[in-house]
Amino acid sequence: PILLLRFFGYFVLMIIVFILGYRKILSFLNANPSVAVYFISLLMFAVPNLASGGFYTEYFVPLLFSLFPFIGVFFAQTYSTTKFTNLLKLTVCATCLLGLLLTDRSFIDTSGGQLPIEEVKTISSIVKSSANTDAIFALEGLWIAVETNVNTLPSMSMAQFSFLDSNIESATRLKLVNGEMVNLYFKNAAASHVVLTDLDWMLLSKTDEFESIKSALEENYTLKVERDQFGQRRGTIQVYQKRSFE
After folding, report:
1. Contact at 8 Å (CB) between 132 and 113?
2. pLDDT for 33-69, tens place per residue?
3. What is the CA radius of gyration of the chain?
4. For 152-193, what is each residue's pLDDT tens digit?
5. Which of 221, 6, 220, 37 lies closest to 103, judged by CA?
6. Which element (helix H / strand E) includes 154?
């Protein structure tokens, strides 16, 4: 449902084009087997993601852009042979209009008063302003480490996917971090700055070490900045600085 709502106009256009011109479309695919194979491969990409029930809608952006040439060809095939040309014209206009109306909400978020990339730069400048910036602890907020050109702590190069809610042996073997390792990082004040988002807090809250993690963070770090409506996801971000730097 989320995917449908985010790209509603495009789905409407595709469905109407296919309904009105399915015979021409099938004939075109039969006459162009290489195109048919490519089209089927795109479907094979989409179906497993949809069936998994857990995906980011952004995963489907390459799929939609890859489908545009097909939609254009199918539209041309349908437009010249159907009596519903006015309906097709109306659908194209509606798709463009819906794209513009939904852009601010779904594609280019400005809820924080800036574009997401500018919000990242603003937070990064605060981190850069510190006289001492060693390695950064960052899960989802990995963009801060990238923008500041500062390394993350070991095994944290995959953003929120670096976190594994498992035992320390499994996390070490996979070069990821778990709750116990995060707790040690905070207790040892291993990072000069800690970047945490609401998504990170949700991940950490599921571990048995959550209370210890919070205590170690409060003991060794000071909250330097907190922002709501941050980034494309409109979440919350917090940046903590090591107390010894104050």
Report:
1. no
2. 888 888 888 888 877 777 766 666 667 777 777 877 8
3. 24
4. 999 999 999 999 999 999 999 999 999 999 999 999 999 999
5. 6
6. none
